[in-house]
Specification:
This protein is α/β, with parallel strands linked by helices and 743 residues long. It contains 21 helices and 30 strands. Helices cover 32% and strands 22% of the residues. The longest helix has 18 residues.
Length: 743
């Protein structure tokens, strides 16, 4: 076939029938993507770069930077340098000599990072990449893990399969960035709704509910991160192979089929062989084989197994930790339902829904107001409208949404619905809190009573239901004091009061509120409590198997008085071990006082000269994106653990790494309307910054923060020391401007 350019030679790879001992009428094919100029990801590189040139994101002669240790690097190098762009590839010591030689020969600059950082080699490469983007004017970063042109590039592969075969019953592919399998299967499912899609991963990859193992040796599949391009709703079954098993399978592919390929192809071949041997007559199976094996000649092809090689996979429940060839079914059409009874409206709400999907569940959001979650559209979660204040209506909605499927759990990421969720879980016989425990966390008057009965240190306090009782309450606790609603959230209406008159005035404001921001009836009481000095901390706890585990302690910075809005976090807090243990033990005693035995909790404290004083018990994960900085620092995904706990799956609370992470919130400095938030791109390029997120939209009314709802975004950074993280955040924050106009 004639091609005018080398780039035109990408695609239209052969489909070959494999020789296998299979039932009569079963056909097994391999799509040989290694017959692209370099490998399968040539398709992606061509699509991303050409689209970027069309849109102007990549200008003539501008540099291209990407993070890769394998075939994506080769594809970017091929297309980028062919079109006249300098190409910079960031890789790590695992890059093989053949790939390095090819990249260098094509004229690329290859940057090798020296050590793993917060999330393994991937994060180390991304941090170096951020430095390059900052240093190279006009640099274009294709972002292979989140660029929608990645999966879109494989629509052509699907069309080629249809042209060559007419139909496919089972598609098997490896999963790394998610682009190839999800892009191909999404296109095929439009024509073949009964297609079975089987993903192949490796032991020690986090992609399908496994704990991360940075020591895994396979390349081209698996990940320590969760790429946006994986659509878990498309995949029916997943197989995991150990390094030994994958490499042995690669040897078998060459020996039995004469296909000299990489370990991704070998893994696909092993799973494809297993499925074909058990397939019904008339079944047509296809495996996508990504790359040739030349770059593995001195690694995979010289590998000697250290233990036994499984000859067949063990079937496990999805979420079970595996160490050798295993598989789990996650059928698209009959996934267990996980009910979210309302949600918070920040990024963690969306992340929780996606996490549920990733763990093999079908999340369903029950809400009284779907408009509140307009930004959740990308989560791909069905929304059911019902009166979430009515337990009967909620139960009816759950049964209707389940449609006969198993309801695996009920949970929420909203403080306002902890009691509701506890009642729902109890009604369905699912894991959860006793409603009384949820109420004791939700209502601060009940919290204070429980802590007092248990002798847990807390501020002096008094509960008032009318203005007349405020002077006596203030006299009891002293001034300055803090006045707040007993059922508030997000620091709303929490105020430091220097004298009795201010306390009376603010209590009147609190008691006049009849409904909270969710339209729920207010408790009609205010808490007047002693103002406790000392540094502010929160203890992140997780209760599992009857044990309250301290995940870590977060240092919190606050706005100046009279308000108590968090302006930033640092995790871990950098305290001496004895002080941290003291805070953790106070948190355990607080949880015991309210009968808290299940799932995540976030306990806010002040550390005084005489020890910790408990300010609040939140029977949920921390808000303010604290779970994200915990994950950045430790590798521990607390949202995943919440979903696991809610559905009865085992939880993993051991950190995978030990780094430092921090966060700063973006807020307005003046009262007015938001015009724009500028400088975010520059902030993203600061080395150590891992996320810059804005939530404020132009035209929105803004003010200096009085509660958590006034925040307009955040910046997250990682580093090796608290000082490094704080310096990174200072630099990034200095680049961002929150522009407002009066009125």
């Amino acid at each position: 076939m004639r091609h005018d350019t080398l780039i035109d030679a990408i695609g239209n790879t052969p489909v070959v029938r494999l020789r296998m001992d299979v039932p009569e009428g079963v056909e097994v094919y391999a799509k040989l993507e290694m017959h692209n100029p370099y490998a399968m990801k040539d398709r992606v590189a061509r699509r991303m770069i050409l689209q970027a040139r069309r849109t102007g994101a990549l200008t003539d002669g501008a540099p291209i930077v990407e993070s890769s240790s394998g075939t994506m690097a080769l594809g970017i190098a091929l297309v980028g340098t062919y079109l006249g762009h300098p190409v910079h590839i960031v890789s790590d010591p695992r890059i093989d000599p053949v790939t390095l030689a090819k990249l260098t020969a094509m004229g690329c600059t290859v940057h090798i990072v020296e050590a793993m950082t917060s999330q393994g080699w991937q994060s180390a490469r991304l941090e170096r990449l951020a430095e390059l983007v900052q240093d190279l004017p006009g640099a274009y970063w294709p972002r292979q893990y989140s660029n929608p042109d990645n999966p879109a590039a494989y629509r052509a592969l699907a069309e080629e399969l249809m042209d060559d075969l007419g139909t496919v019953d089972v598609l098997v592919g490896s999963v790394g960035s998610g682009g190839s399998l999800c892009g191909t299967s999404a296109a095929l499912l439009e024509r073949l709704p009964d297609l079975k899609v089987v993903g192949v991963d490796c032991v020690g990859s986090v992609l399908f509910g496994q704990p991360d193992m940075a020591t895994r040796k396979q390349s081209g599949l698996g990940n320590s991160l969760f790429p946006d391009n994986i659509d878990y709703r498309l995949i029916d079954e997943v197989h995991w192979l150990s390094d030994d098993e994958a490499f042995d399978a690669t040897h078998g592919l060459a020996r039995e089929q004469k296909i000299f390929a990489g370990n991704t192809s070998g893994s696909v071949y092993r799973v494809l062989s297993h499925l074909a041997a058990r397939a019904a007559p008339g079944t047509r199976l296809v495996g996508i084989m990504p790359d040739r094996g030349d770059r593995y000649a001195d690694s995979v092809y010289r590998h000697q197994p250290s233990g036994p090689i499984a000859q067949a996979p063990a079937r496990v429940a999805f979420g079970t930790t595996v160490t050798s060839w295993s598989y789990a079914s996650i059928p698209r059409h009959d996934r267990p339902v996980l009910v979210f009874l309302e949600s918070n409206t920040t990024g963690t709400g969306t992340l929780a829904l996606r996490t549920a999907t990733r763990l093999g569940f079908a999340p369903v959001l029950l809400t009284a107001d779907p408009g509140r979650y307009a930004a959740f559209g990308t989560a791909g979660c069905p929304t059911v409208t019902c009166d979430t204040e009515d337990p009967t209506a909620v139960l009816d909605a759950v049964r209707g949404a389940a449609g006969g499927r198993t309801v695996a759990g009920a949970t929420t990421t909203s403080d306002f619905y902890l009691e509701h969720t506890a009642r729902l879980a109890g009604s369905l016989g699912l894991p959860g809190h006793a409603p009384a425990t949820a109420a004791a966390c939700r209502n601060k008057a009940l919290t204070r009573a429980a802590l007092q009965n248990a002798g847990v240190p807390q501020p002096a306090h008094a509960v008032v239901a009318d203005i007349a009782g405020v002077p006596e309450a203030v006299a009891r606790v002293g001034v300055p004091c803090v006045v707040k609603p007993v059922d508030g959230s997000g620091s709303q209406d929490v105020r430091w009061c220097p004298d009795e008159a201010t306390a009376v005035e603010h209590a009147a404001r609190v008691l006049a509120v009849t409904e909270n921001v969710r339209g729920q009836k207010s408790a009609g009481e205010a808490l007047v409590e002693e103002f406790v000095g000392g540094a502010e901390y929160s203890v992140e706890m997780f209760c599992t198997g009857g044990e309250a585990v301290c995940v870590g302690v977060t240092r919190r910075t606050m706005t100046p008085l009279p308000h108590f809005v968090e302006t930033g976090h640092l995790f871990p807090a950098g305290l001496p071990a004895a002080r941290q243990a003291e805070l953790a033990e106070a948190a355990r005693q607080a949880l015991k006082a309210v009968g808290f035995e299940h799932g995540p909790a976030h306990i806010e404290m002040r550390l005084t000269p005489v020890g910790p004083v408990v300010i609040e018990i939140n029977g949920r994960l921390a808000g303010g994106m604290i779970p994200e900085i915990v994950r950045a620092a430790t590798g521990l995904d607390l949202l995943e653990q919440q979903v696991r706990a809610a559905t009865g799956l085992p939880t993993y609370l051991e950190p995978a790494r030990s780094r430092q992470a921090g966060l700063r919130f973006l807020t307005a400095g003046d009262v007015g309307r938001l015009v724009a938030i500028t400088g975010t791109a520059a902030a993203e390029r600061v080395p150590g910054v891992v996320a810059v997120v804005t939530t404020g939209t132009p035209g929105r009314a803004v003010r200096p923060p009085r509660d958590a709802y006034d925040r307009l975004g955040h910046i997250i950074a990682v580093g090796d020391t608290p000082q490094e993280v704080e310096a990174t955040l200072d630099t990034a924050m200095a680049l961002v401007r929150v522009e407002t106009s009066a009125g």
